[in-house]
Write a structure and sequence with these properties.
The chain is an alpha/beta fold. Among the domains are: 185 residues, Rossmann fold, CATH 3.40.50; 104 residues, GMP Synthetase, Chain A, domain 3. Helices cover 30% and strands 26% of the residues. It contains 16 helices and 26 strands. It has a 13-stranded mixed beta sheet, with helices on both faces. Helix 2 crosses helix 3, helix 9 packs across helix 10 and helix 10 crosses helix 12. The longest helix has 17 residues. It is globular. It starts with 9 loop residues before the first helix and ends with a helix. InterPro entries: AMP-bd_C, AMP-bd_C_sf, AMP-binding_CS, AMP-dep_synth/lig_dom, ANL_N_sf.
């Protein structure tokens, strides 16, 4: 395969591959069972690019889109990149506070917004000096409509992407915001194409892939680019139940699904009578990551989809994929190490260091992951990023993990989430994984409760499955039988109806900790 980095820009990459696979189906909206070819996507994105040029958009500008997945919301991404401008995506579920922060932060020249979120965007712009052009996906009597700006343009067949410096910022993605307000992570044309190229070397079959994440997330953007790379079809759907996912797999004979671990429970908790109702034999790969996947849940998925490899990978928005197993060569490792994030991706270097002393650690020693990759971000938008790197130029991930004798990677938590009990480091995610194995438990979070002499003691907030019951003493005993003495829930157990999470299922830990401490104090 010709190296992607030989491409001049992301705009050229998308433009050329849309032409190469012009007759293939590019995207399917499973919510409405409607599809679109690469040829149609290219035609509409070229028309929009010309319209944006007429509005004065140049490579210096930022274009922002705020929408759930639709057949339309990939078009501004391509059009913006054709012009060498910078594309940013928001998820409407972020709410007013986060959205206002992010819109103000990146100062967009143009905002594309779905009809239902126009009011929120207007609220975000109040009290700011920003006066972006607004284009609405749908109907509007006040603003330009997306359908109008994608109408035929004169000489559209002569259009070609703008030549740009491949090291200029092309895509801005936001950190997950699980510990505070998100930051804008800047990827250049070069770094983004590198991450697509590195991901392609895993050789997952993406001729058809289902996903639920919007383009706000790195996963959504990477899936878009990977489908263009091979002419595959991207199938998307809203937040649906498990049986609907099975229907979609059967209807489109899907080969792959990408989903956050928390959503995999929607599949495994389907009634047994419904699990055999659909033909899902086409499925070959379930890609997941972002939060830990328990060994028991992995077994459940394998029972439900016996023809599919369940591949748990590790990555960061700052550099995308870091590790995963290779289905064709790592079968024995995948089966014997179900909780591993796999082997380090080609061209990526990882070292494990002591979080306090920076000493480089060996196999089976837990420390912070420091990572170097050709796909590394340019930096954070309008922020000094120097403290994010160590003296060797490795990114300080903030993640805790280790590698074993086979050089398989394990990620066990976040440095900032750790707390000390009697001078022992406690990693909350390891205890949370144990709690999640209780049959009555749907979700759980573990936090440290301050104790004057002991430091912090573990406490848990638990969400029970609908129709299930459990006493706090039952949860405490269940955990005590499966963890070390220092990991026992000495801080207690409280119950809640839900935990604060991002749209992809990542726990907003800071908010969760505040809730737990408040409940324990009552």
């Amino acid at each position: 395969m010709k190296s992607l980095v030989e491409m001049t820009s992301l705009g050229e990459f998308f433009f050329k591959h849309a032409e190469k696979y012009r007759d293939n189906i590019c995207q399917i909206d499973a919510n409405i069972d409607k599809s679109e070819t690469y040829s149609s996507v290219k035609r509409r994105s070229v028309r929009l690019a010309i319209a944006l040029q007429k509005m004065g958009v140049t490579s210096r500008d930022v274009v922002l889109s705020c929408s759930y997945n639709s057949l339309d919301n990939s078009i501004p991404i391509l059009s913006t990149l054709y012009l060498g401008a910078k594309i940013v995506n928001l998820d409407p579920s972020l709410g007013l506070r986060n959205s206002k922060h992010l819109i103000t932060y990146v100062s967009p020249r143009i905002i594309f917004v779905e009809e239902a979120s126009v009011g929120m965007v207007e609220e975000c712009l109040k009290g700011t000096d920003l006066k972006p052009g607004i284009i609405v996906y749908g109907n509007s009597d006040k603003y330009a409509k997306f359908a109008d700006v994608t109408s035929p343009q004169e000489d559209e067949e002569k259009f070609r992407p703008t030549k740009v410096d491949i090291h200029d910022t092309a895509v801005m993605l936001f950190s997950s915001g699980t510990t505070g307000l998100p930051k804008a992570i800047c990827h250049s044309h070069y770094s983004f194409l590198q991450l697509v190229d590195i991901g392609a070397k895993y050789d997952f079959d993406e001729a058809s892939i289902l996903h639920f994440t919007t383009f706000y997330w790195m996963s959504g953007m990477e899936i878009l680019a990977r489908c263009f790379l091979r002419g595959g079809v991207r199938v998307f759907s809203g937040d649906v139940d498990g049986e609907t996912i099975l229907k979609i797999v059967q209807k489109y004979e899907l080969l792959a699904i990408f989903m956050a671990p928390i959503y995999s429970y929607k599949l495994t908790r389907i009634d047994d009578s419904k699990k055999t109702k659909y033909d899902t034999s086409s499925l070959r790969c379930i890609l997941t990551g972002g939060t830990p996947l328990s060994g028991e849940q992995l077994k459940r998925l394998k029972v439900l989809f016996p023809n599919a490899d369940v591949i748990f990978g590790y990555g960061m928005t700052e550099l995308a994929r870091v590790s995963s197993f290779y289905p064709k060569t790592d079968k024995h490792l995948m089966e014997s190490k179900p909780t591993s994030c796999g082997r380090i991706a080609p061209e990526i270097s990882v070292k494990i260091v002591d979080a306090e002393t920076d000493e480089i650690l060996g196999p089976n020693q837990t420390g912070e992951l420091h990572i170097k990759s050709p796909s590394l971000m340019v930096g954070y938008h309008n922020l000094d990023s120097s403290e994010c790197f160590d003296r060797d130029g490795f990114l300080k991930s903030g993640d805790l993990g280790y590698y074993d004798e086979d050089k398989c990677l394990y990620v066990v938590g976040r440095v900032k989430e750790m707390f000390k009990y009697l001078s022992w480091h406690i990693v909350p995610s390891s205890i949370e994984g144990v709690i999640m194995e209780h049959p009555a438990v749907k979700e759980a979070v573990v936090v440290g409760v301050p104790r004057e002499e002991e430091g912090h003691v573990p406490a848990a907030c638990v969400v029970l499955n609908e129709g299930c019951s459990a006493r706090k003493e039952e949860i405490e005993t269940f955990v005590a039988e499966r963890v070390t003495d220092r990991e026992q829930l000495r801080g207690g157990v409280v119950f809640a109806k839900e935990l604060p999470r991002t749209p992809t299922g990542k726990l907003v830990r800071k908010e969760a900790q505040e809730r737990v401490l408040k409940m324990l104090a009552q």
